[in-house]
Amino acid sequence: MTLAIETEGLSRRFGERLAVDQVDLQVPTGSVYGFLGRNGAGKTTTIRLLLGLLRPTAGRARICGIDVVRDRPAAARRVGALLEAQGLYPHLSGRENLDLTRRLLALPRGEIDRVLELVELRAAAGRRVAEYSLGMRQRLGLARALLGEPSVLILDEPSNGLDPEGIAELRGFLRDLPGRSGATVLLSSHLLGEIEQTASHVGILCAGRLVSQGRLDALKAGLPAELLVGTDAPDAALAIARQHGFEVEAGPEGLLARLAAGEGIEQAAAALNQALCAAGLRVHALVPRPRSLESLYHLAGADAAPSPAA
Ligand SMILES: Nc1ncnc2c1ncn2[C@@H]1O[C@H](COP(=O)(O)OP(=O)(O)OP(=O)(O)O)[C@@H](O)[C@H]1O
């Protein structure tokens, strides 16, 4: 497995605050890597370190094998980025905005039409950016990141400001991008549903530390199974299930029993059903729940304590 982005012990301190704490990112070439974490977890700081916009306090980052601190220009040539502060000029047209970057990168003129086509902004390219909707600006920012066909795309919260239709379009676009162009995509987000549908790999950041990382399907497969339990007396069922050694919590859809790693789901369901029925409760549902990114996020502790850095 070759890595498009790799960090070792990457850390960044702001005064007393350790915003990024010994992060070892491994982003395989050709992956769509969802970089998750609640607000203040350190995603943007990590991205700024990857782009060489900030210097690390410790550790190192490599883009396509190039050390970002030692050889920033060479690393920068391999990356296209979309950051929250986009730096678009509102009085210029979309095309003119792209042209500024195109000239800076010494790319041929045709490159502008190629990226406009990709983000479907060709028809609006002559209009001033001041007249663009937030979603159009976001797509223009994406078009600019795509100029020069970079090997690595780094996108900080790319779905910000997009309506549900725009989010769905972006999702399809990003999911297909590695297959179409061979590019690797790292996108940060706090939207689990978005990442679950888009990413092949994830990394979860919590209070500056990377608490989970890997192929999304493999990480999900390694999660303990869960059973959703419907009864007519959830409070009593919760107590009884706990007495019988089940790890249970009350959720919006009913009781959620989390099985121990390796515990057989059929056996556990039968034992739980028996315990509840023996106590005189009526069980009307006992359903295995698909393993989800939400469970992974929860078990990694990323949604628990607010990050001290936040
Ligand atoms: N230039 C700075 N000076 C001081 N503290 C900073 C600076 N930049 C970031 N921080 C702090 O570092 C921590 C991590 O911030 P960061 O923006 O990286 O988080 P994030 O995960 O991207 O969150 P968000 O989604 O809200 O942008 C926060 O506590 C933030 O206040």
How does this structure look, described?
A hairpin with a 2-residue loop joins strand 13 and strand 14 (254-258). The chain is of the alpha/beta class. The chain has eleven helices and 15 strands. The strands form three sheets. A six-stranded mixed beta sheet has the order 7-8-9-4-10-11, with helices on both faces.
What is this structure, in a nutshell?
It holds the Pfam family ABC_tran. It is built from eleven helices and 15 strands.
CATH homolog superfamily of the largest domain: P-loop containing nucleotide triphosphate hydrolases
Strand order of the largest sheet: 7-8-9-4-10-11
CATH architecture of the largest domain: 3-Layer(aba) Sandwich
Order of helices and strands: EEEEHEEHEHHHEHEHEEHEHEEHEH
Task: Give the CATH level 1 class of the largest domain.
Answer: Alpha Beta
Mean pLDDT: 89
Kindly state the percentage of residues in helix: 25-40%
- Reported by name, the CATH topology of the largest domain is Rossmann fold
> Got a strand count?
15
Kindly give the count of domains: 2
Main β-sheet, in a few words? 6 strands, mixed
Rg (C-alpha, Å): 23 Å
- Poorly predicted runs: none
- The SS-based structural class is alpha/beta
GO molecular function, one term: ATP binding
Family: Belongs to the ABC transporter superfamily.
Protein name: ABC transporter ATP-binding protein
Keywords: ATP-binding, Nucleotide-binding, Transport
